Amino acid sequence: MDLQTRIKEARKALNLTQEKFAESLGIPKRTFIAYECGQNPIPERLIISICAVHGVSEQWLRTGEGEMFPKLDTDPLWGMLGEVLKEEKSSFRRQLITALCQLE
């Protein structure tokens, strides 16, 4: 199973439409559909966002190994990231995290 299929499987497990899933990640629906259908390469920041916002295991999403939804990590960073990604796109914290994700 490839990355696009695992993203679709996670979205369906969360019982979200493509539109609601894209909205939860702060991206346009058309952009998300292009990722899920394999038309565009999936950026690293999308993988990180899916894991942070929806609690999907990064290992499972990347490789298919392990559980889709592992027990919650006790690292407070993941919880904070999830909260930041739910904020408005214009919030300073969200813009800062987005900029940091784009660094090499």
Describe the model:
It is a single chain. This protein is mostly helical and 104 residues long. The protein is built from 7 helices and no strands. Helix 4 packs across helix 6.
Strand/helix succession: HHHHHHH
Fraction in helix? 55-70%
The total strand number stands at 0
The span between the termini is 28 Å
Unreliable stretches covering 5 or more consecutive residues: none
Beta-strand portion reads under 5%
User: What is the residue-mean pLDDT, rounded to a whole number?
Assistant: 87
**Sheet with the most strands, sense and barrel status:** none
In one word, what is the shape? Answer: globular
Structural class of the secondary elements?
mainly alpha
Radius of gyration: 13 Å
Number of distinct helices: 7
List keywords for this structure.
104 residues; mainly alpha
Quick rundown:
The chain has seven helices and no strands. The chain is mostly helical and 104 residues long.
Topology:
Elements (H helix, E strand, L loop, with lengths): L2 H11 L4 H8 L3 H8 L7 H11 L3 H6 L12 H11 L5 H10 L3
